[in-house]
Amino acid sequence: MCPRCQVLVESGEVRKDEIPIMKVLLELEENDSFRGLRDAKYVRSLRLKDLTIVVLKAKNLAPPELNKIARRLGEALGTRVQVVEHTRDIKRMMAELVSPASITGVNMVWLPDGTTQYVVRISRHEEKLLPAGREVLEEALSVLLNAQIRIKIE
User: Which domains does the chain possess?
Assistant: First the structure.
């Protein structure tokens, strides 16, 4: 690694398990099929069991392009990958993460201890379309959104 990258790893800003993901993204960026990646910014990634979630800040990448990137990353890393766009819109980020399943609703529940919890409702018919198990997705959403998340299958 170059000295700048080494400092980022040593400071903890970039974890060592993120380096292979970033290398593949750089290789894809050079490919003409993924021109939109040149304007994108890597935010973070999260590895949970058999799913890797990659968060990018990308204004000009449409969902089909994100899916194409996820497929190529999955092939290169040998794992299932879900690429989502970083946004402050919690419902939108949740929808991207559970895609191709769709969300029927999101409720905010206030708990007696003063904290809040988001309940993401997904149709029982859509459950088989989830990219990973309910527990894995709950953990991923909680970490990425820094909030308490529960997925309810109805």
Answer: 1-86 (3.30.300), 93-154 (3.30.300.20)
Q: Determine the distance from the C-alpha atom of residue 107 to the mean position of all C-alpha atoms in its chain, rounded to a whole number.
A: 21
Angle 5-76-66 from CA coordinates, rounded to 5°: 85
DSSP per-residue string spanning 116-152: EEEEEEE-GGGGGG-SS-HHHHHHHHHHHHTSEEEEE
Q: How confident is the model at residue 106 (pLDDT cuts 50, 70, 90)?
A: very high
Judge contact between 31 and 25, C-beta under 8 A.
Answer: no
Taking each helix axis as running N to C, give the angle between helix 19-30 and helix 63-77, from 0 to 180 degrees, rounded to the nearest 10. Answer: 120
Q: What is the pLDDT of residue 2?
A: 66
Contact assessment for residue 56 and residue 86, using Cβ atoms and an 8 Å cutoff = yes
The per-residue pLDDT for range 115-129, each reduced to its tens digit, is 899 999 999 999 999
Per-residue pLDDT, 150: 93
Distance CA 51, CA 125 (A): 22
Q: How far apart are the first and last CA of the chain?
A: 48
- Residue 113 burial (CB < 10 Å; 0-12/13-18/19+)? exposed
